[in-house]
Write a structure and sequence with these properties.
Blueprint (H helix, E strand, L loop, with lengths): L15 H7 L23 H4 L5 H7 L12 H7 L15 H22 L5 H12 L1 H10 L2 H4 L19 H21 L5 H13 L4 H8 L11 H9 L5 E6 L6 E3 L2 E12 L2 E11 L2 H13 L2 H29 L1
Antiparallel strand pairs: 1-3, 2-3, 3-4
GO molecular function: ribonuclease III activity; RNA binding
Protein name: Ribonuclease III domain-containing protein
Pfam families: Ribonuclease_3
């Protein structure tokens, strides 16, 4: 019987599994002790970099203005300091895109620092403190302190003398432009240094912003009680005119939560009093970024109200005196 011929060898296309098996192993990058790359992208964590403020930090940052971090890319640096009004063609760079991303970085860093430092305050108060750090008036002042206003390439109407025979930007427009420059500069710091830009921006802004919240940080380290019992205006008002048969009410004012200041809603609280011969008297009202703060401010005003300082306090004193006399008589009669 003739031998069966073996089938000719054929080359099969490699499967996905084959390709994977034959692929050379990826080499891990050599570790480096250089400080220029202290963390890898996989280790990046915005909140881990934003450690809380302490009074020890603030004592250092108050002494001197923290140094301005450099922008490592000259093209980004030029763009960050160039107003769109100085563009000669649509392809020319200006600070708009960097200002947009820088605004995001600033809000994120401010939010993380506040969230880490103040674990007990409500979201309304967190928003108020963040707005203090990132509002135009704050950022424009920083631009001036660092001399960015002198380095910036602004149109002539933003200069002191204004455009010759033309318009002059008003104070609000100048403030907005200087704040935009600061936001763009922050964006350029981060974008020009993928390895360390964000970390450097966090360290710089933490030192720069810290003194603005010094009092709040001290309060937090003291136990988070901004107003102790002896200084709490609500407690003080109760001590001045309160009693078991009188009523002190804290009510929302019309429009509360609908008024906005610095992009944040404002809450209004009024203190109303019934007792000692008075009916539903408004003793004080106040507005703040949170109801708790508004209530404290309203109580503070009520403590200085003429009706409180004259009639109501005297009536309570007279009542307490009469009650003391009555109790003394009852004790004598019982004895």
């Amino acid at each position: 019987m003739p031998k069966r011929k073996s089938p000719p060898e054929t080359t099969q296309p490699p499967t996905i599994q084959d390709t994977t098996e034959r692929a050379p192993k990826r080499q891990k990058p050599a570790s480096s002790s250089s400080s220029s790359h202290s963390f890898s992208p996989s280790e990046f964590s915005p909140f881990a970099l934003c450690s809380k403020w302490t009074t020890k930090d603030l004592s250092k940052s108050k002494a001197t203005l923290p140094p301005l971090p450099p922008i490592l890319d000259p093209t980004l640096e030029a763009a960050a300091l160039t107003h769109s009004g100085r563009k000669k063609s649509p392809s020319d760079l200006s600070y708009e895109r960097l200002e947009w991303i820088g605004d995001v970085y600033l809000e994120l860093i401010a939010s993380e620092l506040i969230y880490s430092t103040f674990p007990t305050i409500p979201e309304g108060e967190m928003s108020r403190r963040r707005e203090l750090l990132i509002r135009n008036s704050t950022l424009s002042a920083f631009s001036i302190r660092y001399g960015l206003d002198k380095r910036a390439n602004f149109p002539e109407e933003f200069q002191l003398a204004g455009r010759p025979k033309g318009s002059t930007a008003n104070a609000k427009r100048k403030e907005k432009a200087l704040a935009d420059i600061f936001e763009a500069y922050v964006g350029a710091i981060v974008r020009s240094d993928p390895a360390n830009g964000y970390k450097n921006a966090v360290a710089w802004l933490k030192a720069l912003w810290g003194p603005l919240l010094e009092q709040e940080v001290k309060v937090e380290e003291g136990g988070g009680r901004e107003i102790d019992k002896e200084q709490n205006p609500k407690v003080r008002l109760e001590q001045l005119i309160g009693a078991s048969h009188v009523k002190i009410e804290y009510r929302d004012l019309p429009g509360t939560g609908e008024r906005w200041v610095d992009k944040q809603p404002q809450f209004g609280i009024g203190v109303y009093f019934t007792g000692w011969g008075e009916e539903n008297v408004l003793l004080g009202e106040a507005w703040d970024f949170g109801k708790k703060g508004a209530g404290h401010k309203a109580a503070e005003k009520a403590c200085g109200h003429p009706v409180v300082l004259t009639r109501l306090v005297e009536r309570k004193r007279a009542f307490m005196a009469q009650r003391a006399i009555k109790r003394a008589e009852e004790e004598e009669g019982g004895g």
